[in-house]
Specification:
It is built from 4 helices and 5 strands; from the N terminus they run E-H-H-H-H-E-E-E-E. It has a domain of 87 residues: Thiol Ester Dehydrase, Chain A (Roll), CATH 3.10.129. The chain has a 5-stranded antiparallel beta sheet with strand order 1-3-4-5-2, covered by helices on one side. The protein is 24% helix and 34% strand.
């Protein structure tokens, strides 16, 4: 299976991946990353914080962008080279997050693409926005 090459990509091409963030996802991410911040794993402490409840790790939701880039656009064979992120709203356990990547710029001579990246929740609220730089698979 091979992804889309730079020659096959067009400005405006877009792909999305949607996932509901579960409590299990949060605990698994905490274990994998070592981030046991009480805002993510301790209900009593999280209720005292600025959001009043537990929230998912920002990078857990940001990881969904990687899913789009590595499996859909450009897809298998893509090298993920960089990412700018801005976290704009918290993600709660049970939120359904849609990560979308849209081709914004193509640099064929370097085999690079810049994609606008955004994650939204089930209400359409933007929770993450940024830009990714990738190297699409070769022809």
């Amino acid at each position: 299976m091979k992804g889309i090459t730079i020659g096959e990509m067009k400005i405006g091409d877009s792909a999305s991946f949607t996932k509901t963030i579960s409590e299990t996802d949060v605990y698994l991410y905490a274990g994998i990353s070592g981030d046991f911040n009480p805002a993510h794993v301790n209900q009593t402490e999280a209720e005292k914080g600025m959001f009043g409840k537990r929230i998912a790790h920002g990078m857990l939701s940001a990881g969904l962008i990687s899913t789009v880039l590595g499996t859909l656009l450009p897809g298998p064979g893509t090298i993920y080279m960089g990412q700018e992120l801005r976290f704009t709203k918290p993600v709660a356990i049970g939120d359904t997050i849609t990560a979308t990547a849209t081709v914004a710029e193509l640099i064929p001579e370097k085999n690079r693409a810049i994609l606008d990246t955004v994650c939204t929740n089930q209400n359409g609220d933007v929770v993450i926005k940024g830009k990714a730089t990738v190297m699409p698979p070769k022809a």
